[in-house]
Batch of 3 targets.
Target 1
Amino acid sequence: MQIPFGDFKRQYFELQRELDDAIQHVMQSGSYILGPAVKGFETDFAAYCEVPHCIGVGNGTDAIQLGLVALGVGVGDEVITVANTGVPGTAAIVAIGARPVFVDVDPVTRNMDPQLLTQAITARTKAIMPVHLYGLMADMPAILAVANQHGIPVIEDVAQAHGARLLGARAGSLGAVAAFSFYPSKNLGAIGDGGAITTTDEALDRQLRKLRVYGWERKYFSTVESGMNSRLDELQAALLAVKLRHLDASTARRVHIASYYAEQCADIGLTLPTTPAGYDAVYHLFVVESAHRDAYMNRLKSAGVSTDIHYPLPTHQQPIYQRYAPHGGLPVTERQSQTVFSLPNFPELTDSEVEYVAQTVRSVAATIEAT
Ligand SMILES: Cc1ncc(COP(=O)(O)O)c(C=O)c1O
C-alpha cells in the first residue's frame, strides 16, 4: 500500500458536484471581487467561530499582518510569539518592521508556555501571538490573564485549529483578533490561497475592512495607512462556504483517526499527542515524538507510509531570523524539532489505509525499540 501524507484531489472528488455548482454560480454572476459570495462566507464563518465579525483576506500570513496593523503594531514594536511553527507569523511581524520576541513552548501541549510571558514583556511589547499548533488551542485563559494585566492585545494564529474549542470557547473568539489560513491542506482549505480575520470588536472590524483594500474608506478615498490589497476572492469564498458545511464531519473523521492511532500506538515507545481536559482538539496534524525519528521515517517510507516533519528548523534558528534568538535559546522548541514527525491524518483516508498506517508504525516500532 502507498499512503500519501495528504491528497487534495480526494476531497474535491468527494464534494465535486457541490463544488462545481458553486464555481458555476460565481462564474455566471459576473461578480468576482468582494461580492455576495465573500459576504455570505464571512457571515457563515463568523457564526461558525461564534463571533460577530469575519473579514475575508488573501491568505493566512496577510491575516496576521493585517491583524497586527489593526492592533497598532508598527516599526520597532515587539510581538511575543513562538518559534516552533513554519515561519509565516514571524514573516508577517518582520514585514511591518516589528520584532519577534520568542518564548518557549510547553513540552506536553507544544504550545506557548504562559509562564514565560511576563519575563518577555517590555515597554515595547504591542501584541502577544500564540499559535494553536497542530489543532490544539494554546492556554488562552493563562495567556489572556498575563496580557490583560499588562494591557497588551492577543492575536490568535488559528491557521491550524478551525473549530477547536477550549472550555467551550471557539478558537478565534478569545483574542482581540484571530488570523485563519485556508491553504488547501488546512482543516478548512480552499482550492488555492485564502484567509480570514475574526474579531468581536466592531471598530477593529471596520479598520480591517479598510486595510484589506488599500485603506479605502470608500472607493478611491483612503483613510488609513498601511492598507494592502488582500482580498478573499469570490470563487474561493464560494468553495469555502461549501466546505464549511462539511467541516464538522471532516473534523470528526480527523479526531477519529487520531484516537485510533493513539490507541494502536500506545506503549510502543512513541510520545503521542496529549489533549488536556477541557480542550477539543481538531487534529490538523497527528504529531508524535521519538529519539529515533530518522529510523521511523525511513522505515515507514520503505513500507509505503509518507510522513513529514512539522517543523524541522525552528524560526529563531533560521539563518535570517537568528538575530531574534533569545539568550539561552528555546530548549523545548529545539529539542522537539529533532524528535517530532507527523503521521498521515486527513479525513479522506480510508479505514484500511488508517489500519495499515497504525500496523506499520507498530511493526517498525518493534524493530526499532528492539535494537
Ligand atoms: C501556524 C500557521 N500560521 C500561519 C500560516 C500562514 O497561512 P498562509 O499559508 O495561508 O499564508 C500557516 C500556514 O501555512 C500556519 O500553519
Target 2
Amino acid sequence: MQPFNCIIIGGGLGGLTLSIQLAKQGFGVALFEKETYPFHKVCGEYIAMESWNFLKSCGLNLDELELPKINQLKVSAPNGNFLTHQLSPGGFGISRYKIDYLLLNEAKKCGVHVFENCKVNDVIKQDSLFTVFTNNGNFSSNLVIGSYGKRSNLDIKFKRKFIQNKAKGLTNYIGVKYHLKANIPANNIELHNFKDGYCGISKIEDDKYCLCYLTTAQNLKNNNGDIKEMEKNVLQKNPFLNDYLNNFESLYTEPLVISQVNFSNKTQNENDVIMLGDAAGLITPLCGNGMSMAMNAAKILSELIPQFLTNKITLDKLIYLYTYKWKSTFGTRLWAGRKIQSLFGNEFTTNLLISSLKPFPFLINNLVSLTHGNSF
Ligand SMILES: Cc1cc2nc3c(=O)[nH]c(=O)nc-3n(C[C@H](O)[C@H](O)[C@H](O)COP(=O)(O)OP(=O)(O)OC[C@H]3O[C@@H](n4cnc5c(N)ncnc54)[C@H](O)[C@@H]3O)c2cc1C
C-alpha cells in the first residue's frame, strides 16, 4: 500500500475534525480508532459556542439538530450557597455518542480511510517515513498525529514525562458520567461543588441530560472504591446533588467511569509525532472548553500541515510553528484552568469563593473569558 499523507491516531473530536479538514484539501488520510462507533465517553457534553462555525465547516448541520442552547450558569458551593450568571455566548449540548458518530460519517464521506476497532501500538520513524503498528497490521505515512486523548498505551510507549509525575498535585483524578432524565431548565448548565470535586449537569439531545463529575482518586479510595458510597458520603452533602442523585432517573444501569486523569503539562510533539487535543494538553473540565480546544488545534494543524505535505516547510518547521501557535493560543487557558480548579478543590475556599463572587458578576465574566477563546 502507498504511504498515506497523514495518519491520525484516535478518532475523538480532535482527530475526526482534522481528518475531515485534510481530506477536503485532497490529502490521503487514515484514521485509527481503537473503539467501534458509536460509543459513549466520559465528558460533560457542553460545547462552547466558539466551535459552532468550525463544526459547520466540517459538514455538521447543527441548526437542523435542534440542540439545547445553554446560556445560564449556576454554581453551588458544597454548603448549597449558589450564584447564577449569564453566559455570553455560552454553548450547546450534544452527547459524544452522537457528535463523534456524525463526524465519523462526514469523515468517511470526505474519503478518510477510517479503521475502527484498530488500536495503534507503536510508531517508528525511519528516515522521513513513519511506520504505524496496529492490531490490524502496519501502515506507513509521511506524517503522524497523536490525537489519542488524555491517556493511552502510546504515552507509556513514548515514555512521556507526564506519566512519570506520579500522585502529585493535579495528577490523579477520576471522571464519572450518567445520562439522565431531569427537569432543570434547558438553557442551564449547573456546576455543583463537593469536597475535592465538582459535578456538571446540562441538557443534551432528545430530552436527555448529562451529569458528569470529576474528583480525586483519593476520594474514591476513602470510600472503599465504591462509587455509590462515595456519592452518598461526599457528593450528596451538596443539597443540589443530593436531590439530583436521589430523584433523577439514570438511563444507564452503571455510570461510565475513567481513572488516571492527569492535568500535568504535556509536550506538543513526541518523537516527531505531533500531539493534538488532550494528548497535547488537558484543560480542567470545569472550564467546559476541552472539546473546543481540541477542535481549534485541529483547525490550526489543518492550515499548517498542507505546507509540509507540499514541501513548502520541513517537519521541524511544522513542529516549531504548531508548538508556538498552540502555546500562544491555549497557554493562558490551561494556566487559568489549573488555578481555578485548585481554588475549587477545598470545601472551605469553595464556600468562601461563591459568597465572595456572587456580588461581582464582572469577576465571573473575567474568569470565564480567561478560559475561553473567540470563534475560530
Ligand atoms: C470529567 C470530564 C468532563 C469533561 N467535560 C467537558 C465539557 O463539558 N466540555 C468540553 O468542551 N470538554 C469537556 N471535557 C474535556 C473533553 O472531553 C476533551 O478535552 C476532549 O474529548 C478531547 O478530545 P480529543 O479528540 O483530544 O480526545 P478524545 O475525545 O478522548 O479521543 C481520543 C480517542 O483516541 C482513541 N484512542 C486512544 N488510544 C488509542 C490507540 N492507541 N489507538 C487508536 N485509538 C486510540 C480513544 O478511544 C478515543 O476515541 C471533559 C473531560 C473530563 C475528564
Target 3
Amino acid sequence: MFLMDTGEKEFILPQAPAMEKTGRQPKAELLSQLYNRIKGCQKCPLGATRTNLVFGAGNPNASVMFIGEAPGYEEDKTGIPFVGRAGKLLDKILAAMKLSREDVYIANILKCRPPNNRDPLQLEVAKCLPYLEQQIEIISPDIICCLGRISALYLLRLKLPMKLMRGNIYHWKGSIPVIVTYHPAAILRNPSFKRPLWEDMQRIMKILKEGV
Ligand code: SF4
C-alpha cells in the first residue's frame, strides 16, 4: 500500500490496482479522477468551513462498503473517514470480521463536516450525495452496510426506527444489497447495541460468502 499525495490530503490506494471486470479503467484511477474533480467543492456552505474534504478511503476493489453519516472533528482534521473513537471501534469490528481497512471501502453521506456535528441538512445532502453515488458505481461492491439511521435515510430514503430496518436486506438502486445497522458512535453511547450490531456483521459475512 502507499499513500497518494492529492495536494489537500492523502488517501490510501492499492499498490497495483486491479482492472474492472469489464477491462475498463482501474477503479483506483476512476476514484482518483473523481477526487480531483471534487476536492475543491463549494457546492454547499460546508465547503467554506471544512479543514479537509473527507473523500473516502480503502480498497477500490472492495466487496463491502461501509457508509456513515458525515466527518467529525478528527476526520475533518485528517481528511480520513472514521478515525476518532467511533473509527477505532469500527477497526475492532472489522478485525473481528477478519477484515481490515485495506479490505473494505469506507465513506460518508457528506464529505465535509457539519458544524458541531449536527445532522446533515437536506440541501447539503442533495449537493453531496451524487459524489457518493459515483463512488458506489465505481467500486460496485457486493454489499453495502449503512452505519446509522442518517446513512439509511439518505442512501435508501428510509425514515424508520433502527429496530425496524435491522434484519432486512434492501437494494441500492435495485441492485446492490444493503444492510442497515447501528453507527459505531451509537455503540459507544449504548453498549447494549453491540450484540445486534455483531449479528448484522455476521449477516454481512454470510452474504459475502454465500450471496443473498
Ligand atoms: S459537503 Fe459535499 S457538496 Fe458540500 S462542499 Fe463538501 S463536498 Fe461539496
